[in-house]
Every structure is written in structure tokens, then in C-alpha cells.
Amino acid sequence: MIRKIAAEFVGVFALLTSIVASGIMATNVSQDFGIQLIINMTAIVAMLGILIFVISPISGAHFNPLVTLIDLYYKKISPKLALGYIAAQFTGGVFGTALADLLFKKPIFFSSHHIRSGSNIFLSEIVATSGLIFFIRLLNNQKRGQYGALVVPVYVTSGFFFTSSFIFANPAVTFARAWSDTFTGIALRSVPMFFLAQVIGAVIGVITANVLSSKE
Questions:
Q1: I need a surface site. Which of 7, 83, 129, 209 has the fewest CB within 10 A?
Q2: Phi, psi at residue 201, to the nearest 5°?
Q3: Domain count, the chain
Q4: pLDDT tens sequence across 98-146
């Protein structure tokens, strides 16, 4: 159990380091927003694919409290392990953000002032999260979870360009990004709205995947 929780911590830690650090690097090397977005996206999806591939056999590579809670609901994980996963995901994300800040001589923790709000952003996070959870659940229902290392990064790549919220789709990632006032940051005041949108999106994703998986 400790090994599984540690794997979740390491996975989210590495993911947030790549998210925040690549965002800082992107703004350092270009003033063009499109190029910045491509740099950030490339680093994130590459890291995400690697992490899912190598950590899936250990913990299932949840890296997302929503995925963990869904597995808990379906009794595929014990409440104790689920709690450990979620704690590891949030702490791993915060420490990953801190490391990214240090890599570029930024303050370890400094709250973001990047307000992300509006009905379009709220809807965007619902859509982004519902799609992510839909694909994860559908793969699991089809017993093809081993393809997650390919499907999830490809979906995230697409989400970078068709969502106005830039596909956070993860409460732990959202909270961690609030502690870096850089390209990928989000103001703490915007976090609750993202949480709500993500929960709604997760429910929609699960229902849709189950409907398509039904044999009736």
C-alpha cells in the first residue's frame, strides 16, 4: 500500500514539475502565446504518457482525485487506499510546483494572480473533464486500460486547443497550480469554480461511458 501511495505522489510530483516548469520556460524563450502553448503542451503530454506507462502497473496511475473517487465508488479500491492516494496527489502536486519554481529561481510558493473565470471557462472545464473521465472509464469498461498511456495524452493534447480553460480536469493539479504566479497558474479564487466544474464533468463522463458500455 505504501508503494502504491508513493507511486501516486511521484507521478503527480513529476507531472506538476513538468506543467509549471515548461510554462516558465515557454515564457522565457518566446513572447508568442501560440508557441508558449505548444511548448507547455508538448512537455506535459510527453511526461504524462511516460508516467502512465511506467506507474500504471504499480498504482494504476490515477494522478487525479476524481479517478480515485470513481474507483472507490465502484469498490475497486479501499477507502483507506483512496484516502492515501488523494493525499499523495495533492501533496505531490504542491511539491512539484515548488520544485518547478525553484528550477527557475522563483519563490517556492507564491500565489497566482491569474484569474480564470467566466461561464465559458466553467463550461470548458466541464467538457474537458467529462471527456477525460469518459475515455478513462470507457477503456476500463472495455478492459483495455493498458492503452491509457496513449489515449489520455492524445486527448489532453486535443484539449489544449479546443478548450478555453486549457484542460485542467484535475482537482489536485488545479490546486497545485494556484501556488505559482506564472504562465500555468490559477488564482486561488478561481479554484472552487474549477473544482465544481470538474466534479460535474466527472459525473457526466462516467454516465456517458456506462451508457455506451451497456449491453442492453
A1: 83
A2: -60, -40
A3: 1
A4: 999 999 999 998 899 999 999 999 999 999 999 999 999 999 999 998 9
